[in-house]
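User: Could you check the structure of this?
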Amino acid sequence: MSMNQDDKSDAYDATARALHWLSAVLFIGALIIGLYFSTLDYRNDKLDYAKFGEWIHWHKTLGTLVFVLVFYRLYHRFRHPPPALPVDMPAWMRISSNLSHVSLYGLILVLGLTGLIASDIGNYPVRLFEVWLLPQFTAENRPLADEIFQVHMLLGDIAAALVAIHIGASLYHHFVVKDRVLARMLSGRG
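Assistant: Sure, the predicted structure tokens are below.
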């Protein structure tokens, strides 16, 4: 099948695709590390705190990178609107798609903010790639930081569920519906 101008218009541009996949890898990496934390017993004397600290630094690095990237993604999305959904897509799928994208962008922003704010308030330094130390802006208040971390962890669980739904919906479109919803984010071609 040859690609005419209309076929190209339903594909994401190369920048949007690159930003999506880079963000996806970083976000899923941060989520996996964060979900792993939720399985740990922090009162356990056998917990390797040095190793735990290394993973915390990587979680913060990946999360901060996703948080910064989301601003460029939103700017790019504003300047280059995403392609229209297939015309034959049912209204409930269109609504679900739009709602899931808004929810994922919102969660990325709120997860980043809660993580950075709780780290700052708790006096838990954020060191990107274990090299660049982000400045701290507030006085230490660990009880408040712990409460914010609880919100952060709950949002992380919600984000993990939304990512699973997002991936499942993409695969459903590709293998069951057999439309171009996933293809336009993979290569931009049919």
